[in-house]
Write a structure and sequence with these properties.
The chain has 10 helices and 9 strands. It is α/β, with parallel strands linked by helices. It folds into 2 domains: about 170 residues, Rossmann fold, CATH 3.40.50; about 110 residues, 2-Layer Sandwich (GMP Synthetase, Chain A, domain 3). About 5% of the residues have low confidence. The structure holds guanosine-5'-diphosphate (GDP) and magnesium ion. The site of guanosine-5'-diphosphate (GDP) has 20 residues, from α2.
Amino acid sequence: MSQNETHKAGFVSVCGLPNVGKSTLVNHIIGSKLAIVSPKPQTTRGVLKGILTTDAAQIVFLDTAGIHSPKDKLGNFMVDAAKTTFAEADLIYLLVECQKPRHDEVELTRELRTTGKPVFLVLNKIDRIQKDLLLPLIDSWLGLMDFKEIIPVSALSGENTDRLLELTIDNLPQTPAFYPEDILSDQIQREFIAEFIREKIYKYTQEEIPYSTAVVVEEMKEREEGGAYIRAHIYVEKDSQKGILIGASGAMIKKIGLAARREIQQFMGYGGVYLDLQVKVEKHWRENIKALKKFGYARQ
Ligand code: GDP
Ligand code: MG
């Protein structure tokens, strides 16, 4: 058989409560920095794709925001975004920590059962528990739904993730790759870059700033003199937040820009990135679904 006839490709939705290790797992598998990994819950917003391409298979990961009880429209959207990825998925990972099912996870399995898709129960953070506790723990999950596979892993150390990949590929349809091997789409590049910027905002500002922030990469172009020009807008809700983000004599925005630029250069594989950051006030953007669409949080 020719390679084309045996090639596998498909979409894998990675769902689970905040902080269980979804971003860490996808990042480990893809081998590059995809979404923000942070001890603070809910730092991944919207749906980011990571793509793993090998000779035999292509896996497109849909890294959903953590499913949780929504508090505002943004929260609601995040739940919806996670659910819509189920419809696109060929396979779903329910990622959980090595512990008994929590209330929201029981609810989630109810939702997952209705999709009719194969679901892998991925028990993450096995580096944290004694091995002899694993079997009784798995027992506590068995009654919830009919999992296609149950795979304990450590996203952090990579333990057993090879096995997870093997089983994943087994469960994907036989079809040629959807995306070229080494090209990240423009949209994905922009998502990466916005994430790098967001990550620096989280790192350097106080708590009330990050959750009131949206980053949109407005423009990306090669510069005639070499390197790239990137213009991004940072949206906040209040003038006071704009003030904090810019800082005294622009010190804060400079710090964020410098740190983000360093990572963007590394990611793009060349120096000479000019990063133009502009802070804009858009009141109540969280409540404004139209704005969410513009910010790429809502997909058409
Ligand atoms: P997400 O909200 O589900 O995307 O979770 P993250 O990937 O951001 O991870 C949340 C926290 O759990 C981070 O501090 C990770 O370093 C940590 N973490 C993720 N996977 C593992 C693991 O396998 N073992 C341990 N010990 N920690 C992990
Ligand atoms: Mg995450």
